[in-house]
Amino acid sequence: MEVKLLIGAHAYAHIQYAGGSMDVLLDAGHSPEFSLSRTASELQDKAKAIIRRAEIIQQAAAYLEAQKA
């Protein structure tokens, strides 16, 4: 992994990893480490919520399938 900080009108972390690369906008007024950790935490929280919604939708599909029987 390689991480480069790109500073311009906005600050970004350019992250290169085995599968590709990504740019992450950094929060002004915070260290890059804090900003990346916060972004990761926010994405993990969103992912958990999406997975929970998917589980509920799958349960609803199973419920409707069982009603046919």
Any chance you could write out the topology, listing elements then pairs?
Blueprint: E1 2-7, E2 11-17, E3 20-25, H1 32-68
Antiparallel strand pairs: 1-2, 2-3
Descriptive notes:
This protein is an alpha+beta fold and 69 residues long. It contains 1 helix and 3 strands; from the N terminus they run E-E-E-H. Strands 1-2-3 form a 3-stranded antiparallel beta sheet, covered by helices on one side. The chain is elongated, with a radius of gyration of 19 Å.
Largest sheet: 3 strands, antiparallel
> How many β-strand runs?
3
| Strand content range | 25-35%
Helix-strand topology string: EEEH
Weakly predicted, low-confidence segments: none
Measure the end-to-end span.
Answer: 52 Å
Shape: elongated
Rg of Cα set: 19 Å
Strand arrangement, major sheet: 1-2-3
* Overall pLDDT metric: 97
Given helix and strand content, the structural type is: alpha+beta
Estimate percent helicity.
Answer: 40-55%
Number of helices: 1
Question: Tags for this entry?
Answer:
54% helix; 69 residues; three-stranded antiparallel beta sheet; single chain; alpha+beta
Quick rundown:
This protein has one helix at 32-68, and strands at residues 2-7, 11-17, 20-25. It has 69 residues and is of the alpha+beta class.
